[in-house]
Design goal:
By secondary structure, the protein is an all-alpha fold. Helix 5 runs antiparallel to helix 17, helix 7 packs across helix 19 and helix 10 packs parallel to helix 12. It has one domain. The chain is globular, with a radius of gyration of 23 Å. The protein has 19 helices and 2 strands. The longest helix is centred in the last third of the chain and has 35 residues. Strands 1-2 form a two-stranded antiparallel ribbon.
């Protein structure tokens, strides 16, 4: 038996599609033009972009729901695709046309969402996101960042991922959201398998050429050991996506049949092992924090309990790491494990990078008081290194970046934004305990203070997409509380409805 929501009276359902005849010729024309152009471009990055972009635009036009479901796959495979296609390999803001496809899709989906009413019925969180977005746009004009191109480049990294918030409010229903969580879980398993292959079998030729040509020194841990980076362009994005994937596996942990349960356990363990051997200590701390907060949500603890659950999980990690001990030898397994264990057991030790990260972030926060109007949106992104000679640079975490880029108003707005985002996600998760709401809460924790880091192409937009969906879901539940709780597998105890919309029964077959 399956449960599907029936369309409300006078509505065309959750997704209003153009007329069939109108969209068909558009798809055919775009695909045909793209095929001709790619044949002329001889398979370069430009050629691939010229065929992919028209098809993507056609999908947004014909079926935005399908495009939202496909976009995570594209962004996860983007890094390795750039290395496989002729001319690939540069990880900098080099004007690679393949990098523009994701932002274009998000922007078009945003325009479509706004046309359908995404800006209506705003919650407090939605108002804060809107105000913050306006500030980001205004700071793109700040002359201190070195020029207008720097500001426009900064918008690609900061503003465009945030536009997914409005897409999630208007165009993502409970069914699509659950599908996306499952897609992210499966993708993280595939990425983890590829990363473990890189780590213990050796880098494929295309990955090795990329490292040699670009000198990506951050991958090296010494003694000839190289961090894995999966299908991505950086080890940081690889670790971030694995963290999000691990949270997805935790959120999907439900009562299943034996074989599905075994697959779920194997998937969770594989992604967890990949996170460990990626050896990024910040990712491990945040994943443990996310697990503790998700457990508190499952138990429906109050704010104090959530704090102690998260802090307790971190303490257990540090204490446990102190009892692991360091292994001898120079194998990649030993080097990676020792690097991680030393950071876990002594986060403030002399050889730990945490004090340096905290100091850099604190210096960035102080910039909000030294330059209250900020240095501009692009000043803390890699767009500044390409288009500007201004002496500004980003920090490791959002609070420092907010102080530098947006000054005192931006820092205050960001603090308010974080407060309302976590509050909204936690209230939604304890209300229905569904996989989607738990995943959203866990993702916010696993990526804490990285929500505006546009370098994380495959992760950042997902944060805002799910946050927007959960915001509208909670708002709809508050405006229209259910008379009878409807038990829907994996989607919680109620079905999301738009504020002001009459609750409607589920059609069962």
């Amino acid at each position: 038996m399956s449960l599907q929501p029936a369309a409300p009276v006078g509505s065309s359902g959750p997704e209003r599609l153009p007329q069939q005849g109108r969209s068909a010729w558009f798809v055919v024309a775009c695909a045909g033009i793209g095929c001709i152009v790619v044949a002329l471009a001889a398979g370069t990055h430009i050629g691939l972009a010229l065929i992919a972009l028209p098809i993507a635009v056609a999908l947004v036009w014909q079926s935005p729901r399908t495009m939202i479901a496909v976009l995570p796959v594209w962004l996860v495979l983007l890094g390795v695709l750039r290395r496989l296609v002729a001319g690939g390999g540069n990880v900098t803001f080099s004007g690679d046309p393949l990098l523009i496809i994701g932002p274009v899709i998000i922007f078009l989906l945003f325009v479509l969402a706004v046309s359908r009413g995404a800006l209506r019925d705003r919650s407090r969180l939605a108002n804060v996101v809107l105000a913050f977005s306006v500030l980001v746009c205004l700071e793109a004009l700040n002359p201190k960042q070195g020029g207008l191109l720097t500001g426009l480049g900064g918008l690609l990294f900061v503003l465009v991922p945030m536009l997914a918030f409005w897409i999630g409010r208007e165009m993502v229903d409970a069914v699509l959201a659950l599908q996306l969580v499952r897609t992210i879980a499966v993708l993280s398993l595939l990425v983890a398998a590829y990363g473990l292959f890189q780590q213990f079998h050796g880098l494929p030729s295309w990955d090795a050429r990329w490292i040699q040509s670009d000198g990506y020194t951050a991958l090296s841990l010494g003694q000839g050991v190289i961090r894995a980076f999966g299908t991505f362009s950086s080890a940081q994005e690889y670790a971030a996506f694995l963290s999000v994937g691990f949270v997805a596996w935790l959120a999907l942990a439900r009562r299943e049949t034996r074989w599905i349960g075994l697959f779920h356990l194997a998937g969770t363990a594989t992604v967890g092992v990949a996170i460990w051997f990626e050896s990024e200590r910040t990712a491990v701390f945040l994943v443990v924090l996310a697990a503790g907060v998700m457990l508190a949500a499952r138990l429906r603890w109050r704010a104090v309990g959530v704090f102690f659950a998260g802090a307790g999980a971190i303490v257990l990690l540090v204490v446990g790491g102190g009892h692991l001990g360091l292994s001898s030898g120079s194998s990649s397994t030993s080097v990676l494990s020792n690097h991680l264990v030393s950071g876990i057991s002594g986060p403030f030790a002399a050889d730990s990078s945490l004090p340096s990260h905290l100091h850099t972030t604190w210096v960035g926060i102080l910039q909000a008081f030294k330059a209250p109007l900020g240095h501009g949106t692009g000043s803390v992104t890699i767009a500044a290194s390409r288009y500007s000679h201004a002496r500004t640079s980003g920090t490791e975490f959002d609070p420092g970046n907010m102080g530098i880029a947006f000054g005192l108003p931006g820092l205050v707005a960001y603090v308010v934004l974080v407060w309302y985002a976590i509050k909204t996600a936690y209230r939604a998760s304890i209300r229905d305990l569904g996989a989607v709401t738990l995943f959203t809460l866990g993702m916010l924790m696993a990526t804490l203070f990285q929500w505006t880091n546009g370098d994380l192409y495959s992760v950042c937009w997902l944060i805002w997409l799910f946050l927007g969906h959960v915001d509208m879901r909670l708002l709809g539940a508050q405006e229209n509380p259910p008379v009878v709780a409807l038990a829907v597998q994996d989607t919680g105890g109620f079905v999301w409805r738009r504020p002001g919309e009459a609750r409607r029964p589920l059609a069962s077959t």
